[in-house]
Amino acid sequence: MKREKPMSVQRIITALAFGWVVVCAGAAVLAPVVCGYDPAAIDIGNILQPPSAAHWLGTDQLGRDVLARLVYGARVSLIVGFVSVGISVTLGVLVGLAAGYFGGWTDRALSGAIDLMLCFPTFFLILAVVAAVDKPGIWPILVILGLTGWMGTARLVRAEVMSLREREYVMAARVIGASELRVLFRHILPNALSPVWVSATLGVAGAILTESGLSFLGIGVQPPSPSWGNMLGDGRLTIGAAWWMAFFPGTAILFTVLAYNYLGESLKNRMEDRR
Amino acid sequence: MFKFIAKRLLLMVPLFFGITAMTFAVTQLAPGDPTDQATQLNPKISQEAKVRLRELYGLDRPILERYTRWAWSAARLDFGRSFRDGEPVLAKIASRIPVTLAINLSGLILTVLLAVWIGVIGASRQGTWADQLLTFIVFVAFAMPTFVLALAAMAFFGLKLHWFPISGVTSLDHELMNGWDRFLDVARHLTLPVLVSVLAHFSGLARYMRSGMIEVFRQDYIKTAWSKGLSARAVLFRHALRNALLPLITILGLSVPGVLGGSVILETVFSIPGMGKLMMDAVMARDLPVYMALLTLGAFLTLIGNLLADLAYRWADPRIRNS
């Protein structure tokens, strides 16, 4: 049963979500061009200024422009989101393909690995790894998020491949002498990918959330590099005196996660409708 | 039934070894040494003393030997002493459990009540403005990070309205209070953390409940219930809700580790000395025995939670029990 919403509302929300994603991507790419201020420029004369014409979103405890830091922070968030999801989706697809297609012992071993990873208290593991690394920066976070986030995709792909491999066109491909690898990557993979797009979109939101959580705790992206999470962490300390320091990065994180979640959901609904 | 449990418990053993071994390996990636805290900052300490300290903690041994040793004592529930203050790890953990349990248990109960209510309203009035509003709220809440929520709650209820204290578990004059006032004092301190934890977690469950209820409404036995003239209340609560609650068992099982494990972010923001804060501090100080014990506990609770959920499900759903 599908809830019928007026089409226009849905369209507007989709446009807004998409618009936000594009704006963030644009800001991330063009950061040096669009910023009037250097995100690291300390200005002791202008600390904790509320939003004004000069500093649209105010300044922080070191007089740095919040808007500039927000724009540069978009870079961090998007890199983390996309690269870690890239890693986890690649891993998940490969594991899922192998488990679903070969079955038997391969499947049992890989499914066991999936269960093992699912039992891990992931956030604790991330904490431990990030704390273990000498200089916690963006790269260890990327890698560890990628390495701990592939299980969902692997399960999806595995289930999909298991049903696809019995299809007639796969049989046909094999009959005309296509190699195992060709069948896998040319015939099965493209058809198994549709649920992956959904989980990848939602995964971007999840990765951005985790990164900002870690940076918020002070073990993610290290100052002076701005990230939405560590800006919020700074904002926490001055929350009574300077609401703008916490409000804007918090809103940016919320909007971004909302946008990716919404796009992921509508993608899912569309695919379900098509079936 | 006995066979099922025995099999599951047996399967847990290799899984358990896998998890702890992997964690142990990860902790060894650390370039720093747990003894750094005691030695690095102390210019007077000699090289010889450093070596002795490492020997004392067994850090000079090869990793395999250290893991075997650790696993052997852990199997006898001996998790050693904290590198930081020499306190036994188990005592440390035990002292942190009550406050985390208090927050998460009350949070979980409220979360479930709220989520079930939203699910029932949403499903029984599907498509109305109430349903759409709730769906919207749930969607936004789903994307809301805990720390943003926590900061907002702190700023609004704590700093603006002054309704609740924003950090810690007790007031400065806690010791001077009598029993009832002490309880109220702690309750006031824990209100915001519990509120935030509920708001951060109800959305996933609420979505689940709503779609579960909608699914149940489509079943034939609901049609039967309506057609034999039962009241809406009876159909909703006695026939539909009961069946829609089944998946809740699984979710409750999955939340077992969270209830004891605590939330690192929540406890850090509100400065609550619970399990999450313990984990965070242990990781930052490279206090290996403490965080190995916490990770082991987490993994153990995850496995037990899964098993309990499966058992409860079989108990509650005869279709699974008999298949």
Ordered list of secondary-structure elements with their pairings:
The complex is a heterodimer of chains A (275) and B (323).
Chain A: H1 7-29, H2 31-34, H3 66-102, H4 104-119, H5 122-132, H6 138-148, H7 151-164, H8 168-175, H9 180-192, H10 194-217, H11 228-237, H12 243-274
Helix pairs in contact in A: 1-3, 1-12, 3-4, 3-6, 3-7, 3-10, 5-6, 7-9, 7-10, 8-9, 10-11, 10-12, 11-12
Chain B: H1 2-28, H2 36-39, H3 47-56, H4 63-75, H5 89-124, H6 129-143, H7 146-160, H8 179-217, H9 220-227, H10 232-244, H11 246-254, H12 256-261, H13 264-269, H14 275-284, H15 288-316, H16 318-321
Helix pairs in contact in B: 1-15, 5-6, 5-8, 5-15, 6-8, 7-8, 8-10, 9-10, 11-15, 14-15
Summarize the structure in words:
The complex is a heterodimer of chains A (275) and B (323). Helix content of chain A is 74%, strand content 0%. Chain A has helices spanning 7-29, 31-34, 66-102, 104-119, 122-132, 138-148, 151-164, 168-175, 180-192, 194-217, 228-237, 243-274. The longest helix of chain A is centred in the first third of the chain and has 37 residues, at 66-102. The mean pLDDT of chain B is 84. With 323 residues, chain B is an all-alpha fold. Chain B starts with a helix and ends with a helix. Chain B is globular, with a radius of gyration of 24 Å. At the A-B interface, helix 4, helix 5, helix 10, helix 11 and helix 12 of A face helix 1, helix 6, helix 7, helix 13 and helix 14 of B.
> Could you give the count of β-strands of chain B?
0
Q: Segments of chain A where pLDDT lies below 50 for 5+ residues?
A: none
- In round numbers, the mean pLDDT of chain B is 84
User: Mind telling me the C-alpha Rg of chain B?
Assistant: 24 Å
Q: Ranges of chain B with pLDDT <50 over ≥5 residues?
A: none
Question: What distance lies between the first and last C-alpha atoms of chain B, to the nearest angstrom?
Answer: 12 Å
Categorize the overall geometry of chain B.
globular
Percent of residues in beta strands of chain B: under 5%
List the total number of helices of chain B: 16
Give the helix proportion of chain B (percent range): over 70%
